[in-house]
Write a structure and sequence with these properties.
binds zinc ion, alpha/beta, eight-stranded parallel β-sheet, TIM Barrel, binds (4S)-2,6-dioxohexahydropyrimidine-4-carboxylic acid, three-stranded antiparallel β-sheet, globular
Amino acid sequence: MDHLTITRPDDWHLHLRDGDALRAVLPYTARRFARAIVMPNLKPPVTTVADAASYRDRIVDALPEDLRRERTFVPLMTLYLTDATSPDEIRRAKESGFVHGVKLYPAGATTNSAAGVTNLRHCWPTLETMQSVGMPLLVHGEVTDAGVDLFDRERVFIDEQLIPLRAAFPSLRIVFEHITTREAAHYVTDCCGRERTLAATITAHHLLYNRNALFHGGLRPHWYCLPVLKREPHRQALVEAATSGRPCFFLGTDSAPHARRAKESACCGAGAFTAFHAMELYAEAFERAGRLDRLEAFASFHGPDFYGLARNEDRIVLERSSWTVPASVAFGDDELVPLDAGSTLRWRVVD
Ligand code: DOR
Ligand code: ZN
């Protein structure tokens, strides 16, 4: 098979940033994906429907002229949950029609999460409203307790936060974002058959690489993201979940651009830039698993089905043709390093 034609995919977890950075990275996503769930962790964060409306306008303005004219890319906006998010804001979000989720960042868990939730108990009435109006909660699932080993934070989150949360709000729709562990894959799989309230996104990098990539021949900042890459058995469990055909798993790149200078520093921020070659990376992962036939459902069907949106109607074509991931791409007066720069990939999207 030399060509793979699939329904145009969507990215259910993406960081687009703002200003010049937004203009630099948006075309990579907008030329391939029809829609993207846009993360709200700007500085300051997108906490209100009014903020989300103006951020959406800035995204549309930043589209290259041809895409703006054709209206082919639709940003799906999210709100950043804080201890102070009100039930009224949730109702406004639902009525807006353009806010599709509310993101839980435990305070201190990751990039720009300082304004996040300090204790989920503070959000109880807000979560109640989300459950009743049908507004999904998108979860960065890691505990922030300094006493918990960084590599265990997702696993501990399931027991300490997610299970009690789902018991308290059984019909709240939850997306467990960018899962990285066998425990998360198994937990979501167990819930998948019975209800349709829990789903998970999986990144291409967590499907392709394990934590050795962070230390290969030295310390590799471009591989540092959160949740951090895990051991090989976890990667294998994620591949098994993503390629299982189960509707509770779908594509979310978590592409998170950080300028090269900031990445290659004594204290580098978390985030892997994959928007440049996202579909190629996913195709690589599915092909290695012998499951290219299941890429389309993962990339293009399960996400819209969970969010209650229509599937896309047009298609994209991937062709089997080897190419080398470039060392960097332009990013204002700096550069961005695509993940696994210099490596050879076997598939490429035909423009
Ligand atoms: O690696 C990450 N980068 N994980 C996150 O949760 C946030 C993201 C970012 O915004 O850079
Ligand atoms: Zn993210």
